[in-house]
Amino acid sequence: MTLRGYPQHMRASFRLGRIVGVPVGVNWSVLVIFALIWWGLSANLFPRSYPGLSVIAYLVAGLAAAVVFFLGLLAHEVSHAIVAKRNGLEVGGITLWLFGGVAELRGEARSPGAELRIAGIGPLVSLVIGIFFGVIAMLLSLGGVRGLLLGAMAWLGGINLLLAIFNILPAAPLDGGRLLRAAVWKATGDRNRASVVAARAGWVLGVALIGVGLWRFLTGAGVGGLWLALIGWFLIGAASLEERQARMGSALRGIRVSDVMTPQPQTASSEMTVADFVDNYLFAYRHTALPLTEDGGRPIGLVTLDRVRGVPSDQRGSTTLEAVACRADDLVLASPDEQLTDLLPRLSQCADGRALVVSEDRLVGIISPSDISRAVQRGHLREQTAPNR
Ligand SMILES: [Zn+2]
Questions:
Q1: What is the Å distance from ligand 1's center to 80 Cα?
Q2: 114-118, 199-203, 326-330: which has the minimum mean pLDDT?
Q3: In what order do the strands lie in the sheet with 362-367?
Q4: What are 60-73's pLDDT values in tens digits?
Q5: 199 alpha carbon to ligand 1 midpoint, in Å?
Q6: Which residues are known catalytic residues?
Q7: Model pTM score
Q8: In this structure, which CATH number among 3.30.460.80, 3.10.580.10, 3.40.50.300, 1.10.150.120 belongs to the domain 257-383?
């Protein structure tokens, strides 16, 4: 699965390292699904299929199969990342979490063909992995090998095929939803309309999964039913977000960062204390964020009211703005000529959704969420008055 920017609860809790230059991380919630799979295999599937073995044997086989399954998930996401990079997109990272894996793409595929390649490779990789383990299981079976090894290979073959099939369901944010988007984009030439169609399909699939999941849970399928319903709920959330982004995208078509930014904002030095800021700036200054710059105007941080408010009043005299600022690494930088729609997915929590506009390494403006919502409102108005655009 690929997403453009994702919420905090999906971000990596710890890093595993880098693959093809892309940071790979794990969100703690992956432990839930890992434990469920391990438990399901070693306490249910394996003892039922191959009774009479030791508990240790079931646990080891279950653990090995679960680890290989997650390596397969990783291969799926890495393939998205490689093809995305080849097609000129930046990849923010790969995270394994509650519902499997996700590759974070920065920016948009440039053509329906690129979208098709980036989305299509993931399910293809899962399919190949599934066939690989399926063939091994078949050979083992033909060779007269029975037992846990055959069981693990057969399960890995089946689960990867299932993964490939589930992922090509034509509903955003699943890979199949991206393929649908590529097809509608190609047919209509309208990228945003294609996004809305794929997101609507995601919403429908989400509702269907919740319905089927709850029904199965109530008729005794247990955790599996609830799991389906949870996935459905996640799909609805992600699809709704993508539809909103697409509608915003069409309202903001053609609008550049420099059109909506506040030019030449007030700045401060990072050594200023919070007390100084509250006494001398806060009331004289009508904005709620203050960029910190170094000599020459290079931005090195951003202080927001929320961050200042978190400092107890008795510590304000001894706390510098640098200590409470959103750091340079977390700043979202934009260039004045950039399309506003390209900036939106990059906006981060750290700076409360703000971006600093930089030209030749110097701060030239700032964009706040209210600048963006004003631009969206104006854009919608423009669409209403010019319906043929
Ligand atoms: Zn995928």
A1: 7
A2: 326-330
A3: 262-263, 362-367, 355-359, 333-334
A4: 999 999 999 999 99
A5: 16
A6: 77
A7: 0.77
A8: 3.10.580.10
